Amino acid sequence: MGKLYSRGTRAMSDLVVAHVVEDTDEDEFRLFLRLLHRSGLTARADLVFLFGSSSSESRFEVSEAWKTGNGESVWGKGIRVKNSNDSDESEGELTQLSYGSVVGFEVSELNPENSLAGFLDHLPMSLRRWACYPMLLGRVRRYFKHIMLVDVKKLLLLIDPLGRFRNRRPESVYMSTKQETTSSTKHGKRRNNNNKNKNSDKSQSHYQVNSAILMGGTRGIRRFSNTMLTEIVRVSMRHRKGKSITESAILSQLAGNEHILKNVDLIKLTEPIPVASELSELNSTGQGDNYRIIQRDNGNHDLNSIIMKHICSCEVDSRVYRDC
Questions:
Q1: pTM of the full predicted structure?
Q2: Which of 8, 121, 304, 307 has the fewest Cβ atoms surrounding its Cβ within 10 A?
Q3: Predicted confidence band at 285 (pLDDT cuts at 50, 70, 90)?
């Protein structure tokens, strides 16, 4: 099950699960990988790619795929190397370079019965991925302390985002939200000697969740993903057949329901995630290095050019990348 692209040098405490939606192209995938390595996250975490199908996986060149075939775990088992002066009995020393394993799965391997198909006419990758997490995260729950779920197409990681949260509780879950306020009109009470109803405006706040990234402790992410899967089924049964439901809408509904998530320490991050086209302006004001994550925007911007300008603005990076 699964394909091992690269075996890590040692056991890692963090796991990144990156799902690849159907319309992700090669340039988007390549840029995600490039920035992921530059962020330093691959030196601290194992990486799992979740593909919709074998044809989807074959479009991307992560590296030459091969299976272990020897029954060993692919989850970053420590590797030791021997010095030329070491005897056969010597255990050797840990390699100096540190990087995690890179593994790929198709959704049919983790959810072969396609359990959500009976509830939804159209099942995009953004929803089906939640049916894959119980098996995947259940298998690795004893190996990792922190987990990040991220969308390859929508987000780019500039700096390790988990660095801010590694000392938090294992039940913690962090989601990026935007608070929105809506007005609803309700009938007020009648006044004395007045038969007319008085309309009063009541403001209601709710959170719009960015579904492209979710991170936290392993226990919290597992609990949240199980709850999300149940909520997808519940919402799909309530809606009329043929009416579409969105991942973001269900996540936003969950974010406002403290009772359902009572066993999760949910933390809503309200700081905005800038879009890639804003990087040039942020760099000019000296704020570019303060952002760990950026969103791809839908404009006709030369994203590679914008990203390389950001990378080359760093003196150290400008000496490393030949593009600068």
A1: 0.80
A2: 121
A3: low
